[in-house]
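Could someone model GDP-alpha-D-glucose with this protein?
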Amino acid sequence: MSRLIMISNRVQLPSSGGNQGGLAVALQAALRDKGGIWFGWSGETTEQFTGEIHYREANGVTTATIDLEQQDVDEYYDGFANRTLWPLFHYRIDLTEFERDFNSGYARVNRRFAETVGPLIEADDLVWVHDYHMIPLGAELREQGCANRIGFFLHIPWPPADMLLSLPSHRELVEALFAYDVVGFQTQDWLDSFLHYVERQLGGTIAEDGTVTVGERSVRVFADPIGIETASFEEAAAAAPARHAQERMYMSATGRTLIVGVDRLDYSKGLEERFLGFERFLSLHPDFRGLVYMLQIAPPSRENVETYRAIRAGLDALSGRINGEYSDMDYVPIRYVNKGFARDVLAGIYRAARICLVTPLRDGMNLVAKEYVAAQDPADPGVLILSSFAGAAAQLKDALLVNPYSPEEIADAIAQALAMPRAERVARWEKMIDIVRREDVTWWCNRFLDMLEREPAPRAPLHQLG
Ligand code: GDG
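Reply:
Sure, complex below.
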C-alpha cells in the first residue's frame, strides 16, 4: 500500500489535550492508516538554513519539520502568503501587497521544502500538498525528478479571473498547478473561477471528467468540500466539560439569549460588519435591548502583519462604542474575547447559543458553521445565520443565508431567528446535520485520496506549457 507524504506550512502532532482542530485529527488518522510523514515548517527560525530535519513521533504519526531563516519567514509566510495571496484570494485587492521580494522568498522557500522533503519520498508514495503557501511545491518536486502522484488541496477561495490578473505572477502561479495530478477546491464556485481563468488566459480545455488540459499538461480538478469530525464533536458537545461550559454561560447570562461568533481575528471573517449588524438589530428592536447579547470569541492571528493589528484596534473601538451606547448597569450587549478556548468548552458555548453568526465576507469553507450545527441539542437546536459568501453556504442551505455586507440583512436574520418556532428550527437543523454527518472530514479526506490513487503512476517528467 502507498504511504502518504503530507506537506503543509505547519504540522500538528496528536496531543492528549483534546484541543486539536478536526482537520489535524483527520490528517493524522489518514497518516496513521497509510503510514508516512507530515512535513512542514517548525515555526522556528535559524541563522542559516541547513535543511536539517527534526523528526517527532506521537501516537503513530511522524512529523518532519525544518527551520527557516527570518528573511524566509518575512518574505514567504508574512509576505507572499499572508500579505499577497491571502487578501487577493479573499477578494481584497485593496489590502493586497505586491512586492517583488515576496515573490522570490516564496519561490525560495518552496524550493527549500522540495529539496528537503524530496529525498524522503519513496517510489510508491502518495504526496498531498496543502494550501496557498505551497502552490509551486509540486513543480519544484517535479524539477527534482519526483514522478509520484502528487495532489494539491486549496483551503481558501479561488478568486475571479479578473481579480487574479492583478497579481503580476498570475500565470506562473496557475501554471505551477499543472505539475500536480489532482487539484481540489472547496466548492464548485471556486473551481469555476479557476476554470474560467484557465480557459480565458491559457486557452485550456476542460473535459467532462474534470481533466483540464493546457498544451501538453493535464490536471484533474474537482470540488471536495472539507468537513469536520462530526461524530466526535457531537459527542464532545454532550459530555461533561461541554455541559459545564453551557451551564456557566446560562448562569452568567441571567436569562438573556446568547448569540455567538467564533473566528480567528481576520478581516475576511467580517467581524466589523457583524458588530454593525448586531448594532442595527439593537437600534431597530428596542424591545430586545437587555434581552439578547452577543459573545464574540476572536483569538488573535498573524500579529506580525500590520493589517491584523489594525483590525484588532478597529474592533476594540467599535465594540467599545456599541457597548457604550447600549449597555446598562447590568447589561453589556457585546462580550468580545480575544482568546481561544478548549475544543470541548467551545462545544458547550455553541450549544448554549440560540444563534450563531457566521458572516465572513469570503471564506473557503468555514468549519465553525459546521461545528455549531454538530453541537446543537437535537430537541431544541439553535439557528445558524450564515454568509452566502462562505463555501459552507453551498451545503448548509437551510441556514438563514445573509449578505454579510448588509447590516439590515444581519439584523433581520437575527430577528427572524429569535422568532423562529421550535418546529422550524428542528426541521432546518435536521437537514443540516444530515449533511454535516454524511460529508464529514473523513469523507473529504478519503474522496481526495481516492481521486489521487486513481491517477496512473509514475508520471511523465514536467514539460513546458504552451
Ligand atoms: C481555513 C479557511 C476553511 C477558533 N477559535 C477557537 C477554535 N477555533 C477553531 C474553530 C475552527 C477553526 O478554528 C477555524 O476554522 P475555519 O474554517 O472557520 O477558518 P480558518 O482558520 O480561516 O481556516 C477556511 C479551513 O481552512 C479548513 O479548510 O474552512 O475557509 O479559511 O475549527 O473551531 N478552536 C478552539 N478554541 C477557540 O477559541 N479550540
